[in-house]
């Protein structure tokens, strides 16, 4: 159930969005060690964002997972997602924050229940 919610102030065309969704899904699944079928990626483009006092290309992400997170994994995820955003949207890694949430099963709903 890892869920990555990405926000960027960059407009994203359909082909690039599809590439980001695919690449991010594969990366999150591989790094956390969960099946791709459990991973959800949300891409919110053209969101007004100011970072360091200007509106140059920037992004913010939140990754929520039931387990699988920790210092080493979070570092790999941050680096990999940053690389995807830099490659696909020209967002410099110094203009990207990501917050990680390791949640308990009872705090995540699915299929009309909790995990």
TrEMBL record:
Classification via InterPro entries: Macrophage_inhib_fac, Tautomerase/MIF_sf
Broad class of where this protein is predominantly found: secreted
Single GO MF descriptor: phenylpyruvate tautomerase activity
Keywords assigned: Cytokine, Isomerase, Secreted
Record flagged with keyword Nucleotide-binding: no
Reaction catalysed by this enzyme: 3-phenylpyruvate = enol-phenylpyruvate; L-dopachrome = 5,6-dihydroxyindole-2-carboxylate
SUPFAM superfamilies: Tautomerase/MIF (SSF55331)
This enzyme's EC code(s): 5.3.2.1, 5.3.3.12
Compartment list: Secreted
Superkingdom per UniProt: Eukaryota
Pfam family, one: MIF
Enzyme class, first EC level, given as a word: isomerase
The UniProt record lists the keyword Secreted: yes
GO cellular component, one term: extracellular space
Family from the record: Belongs to the MIF family.
Protein name per UniProt: L-dopachrome isomerase
